[in-house]
Design goal:
There is one protein chain. With 432 residues, the chain is an alpha/beta fold. It has a domain of 201 residues: Rossmann fold (3-Layer(aba) Sandwich). It is 44% helix and 17% strand. The protein has 20 helices and 14 strands. Strands 4-5-13-10-11-12 form a six-stranded mixed β-sheet, sandwiched between helices. Strands 9-6-7-8-14 form a five-stranded parallel β-sheet, sandwiched between helices. Strand 10, helix 12 and strand 11 form a beta-alpha-beta unit. Helix 4 runs antiparallel to helix 5, helix 11 packs across helix 12 and helix 16 packs across helix 18. The longest helix has 19 residues. The protein is globular. The mean pLDDT is 94. The site of pyridoxal-5'-phosphate has 16 residues, from helix 12.
């Protein structure tokens, strides 16, 4: 299968090229040229297909030109090697996506992409190293560092705003070493992104190193996210659940929700998706008929969703006709005050510790007023509460127990670089 540029459907590349390039030359996103259907009989619990088999069937059409079935199966095994539990919270289920190595759902996309790049590098027998350059406001950095750790001939440089990320986030980026370099930038996340963009248009730099990005718009980060939607559907049907399923996704750049909607288009019969955002609510206003008008990004408690111009929304618009989208996708947004109230409510009523992103997804379901006899609401918990400990501990007046995965990092030496301008970044990249 080929992937086309969303602003020029005649420009097509293979999966491999789309992964390496990240964006099309015209800076728009890649999109698969067709949406393969999953055989409905395979989704029937009586077919006794394993999740591994289903995962392989769902993803193989996208990558078949560039890897063998065995290669894809190996990558899937390395990507989804942790639990994806569905935990009852009142009438709903919380789909916990944070049991991976860096305690956030981004582990899945980051690891899948890292394995793909490593494989392509090996197959091409390239002698030049590939350098992955990524800017992060926090969560992406850890997932990318972990996902790419030890991938041969791939060097990773992560730029983050100095002093502006949490201690846990810094631990997850600075304690790996080997092929991972974390660099604190004097400035904001926007400054980090500007430096990354400048590197990508620097032809002199690109003639000397193979530079690629691990941004969330990369198809190799986007596509594997469909697997947990598939898994959720599969395990609920196996457990005899027959109600209609409504899924609520805490959305920032809309990659996660868009992957779920792709799963729907491939034949997983979800009834509806709720995309729940914080006050950065461009999509809510758009679906409400107020036009697409991104406003300056406002900082919130659910800061992994502080995005005012979500890149993946164009992919959602490509998947659906406008009227169909109005039916299938409900968008809503909630303030920090509502988020805190929800965290308190969920804890008080159900003894469940939600963090700000999951709490917003929970509120998204509350908005739907579901008929629990016929409908089952599932909200996605995208991070472990420890990653947003300050907000959660303050709201609940509790101390969250630190997971072992984090405590283990505290004994390791932190190593980070520092830079404040483009020339310094360029020198660093050339010396990888
Ligand atoms: C990145 C992130 C999100 C937003 O996901 P998108 O795919 O960008 O919509 C939500 N929650 C957490 C914890 C995240 O790290």
């Amino acid at each position: 299968m080929k992937f086309y540029s969303l602003s020029n459907p005649d420009y097509k590349v293979s999966f491999r090229e789309a992964v390496i390039e990240g964006l099309a030359p015209d800076r728009s996103l890649y999109f698969p040229e067709r949406i393969p259907k999953i055989d409905p009989s395979h989704l029937d619990p009586n077919s006794h297909r394993s999740f591994e088999d289903l995962s392989y069937e769902a993803l193989y059409p996208f990558v078949s030109d560039d890897m063998s079935p065995e290669e894809l199966k190996t990558i899937i095994q390395k990507t989804v090697h942790f639990e994806l539990p569905l935990v009852p919270v009142g009438d709903y289920l919380s789909l916990e996506l944070f049991h991976g190595p860096t305690l956030a759902f981004k582990d899945i996309g980051a690891r899948f992409m890292a394995e793909c790049l490593g494989l392509f590098h090996k197959k091409d027998q390239k002698t030049k190293k590939t350098v992955v350059l990524v800017a992060t406001s926090g969560d992406t950095g850890g997932a990318v560092a972990n996902g790419f750790l030890g991938v041969e001939n791939v060097e990773v440089v992560i730029l983050y705003p100095d002093q502006k990320i949490s201690d846990v986030q810094e631990l997850q980026m600075t304690t790996f070493h080997r092929n991972i370099k974390a660099v604190a930038v004097q400035g904001t996340f926007d400054d980090c992104q500007r430096l990354v963009k400048q590197a990508f248009v620097d032809t002199e730099l690109k003639s000397q190193i193979d530079l690629t990005s691990a941004n969330s718009i990369n198809v190799a980060r986007w596509l594997p996210q469909m697997l947990y939607y598939l898994k959720t559907f599969h395990s609920l049907r196996e457990a005899g659940e027959k109600r209609d399923l409504i899924v609520s996704v805490p959305s920032g750049n809309f990659g996660n929700s868009c992957a779920g909607m792709l799963a729907y288009k491939m034949g997983i019969p979800f009834k509806r998706f709720v995309t729940a955002t914080n006050t950065n609510n461009t999509v809510v206003r758009y679906l409400d008929g107020q036009g697409y008008n991104p406003q300056p990004t406002v900082p919130t408690l659910s800061n992994a969703m502080d995005v005012s111009d979500p890149s993946n929304f164009v992919r959602i618009q490509e998947l659906f006709e406008p009227e169909e989208l109005q039916q299938f996708m409900h968008a809503c947004s909630f303030s920090d005050t509502q988020t805190i109230e929800a965290i308190k409510h969920i804890y008080k009523e159900y003894r469940y510790t939600a963090e700000p992103h999951g709490a917003i997804a929970y509120l998204g379901l509350e908005n739907e007023r579901l008929n629990s006899e016929k409908e089952l609401g599932i909200f996605l918990e995208t991070a472990h509460p420890i990653k947003f400990a300050a907000a959660v501990e303050k709201a609940l007046e509790i101390k969250i127990e630190e997971p072992k995965a984090i405590t283990a990092l505290r004994d390791k030496k932190r190593k980070k670089g520092a830079l404040s301008n483009y020339q310094e970044l360029k020198t660093l990249l050339l010396n990888q």
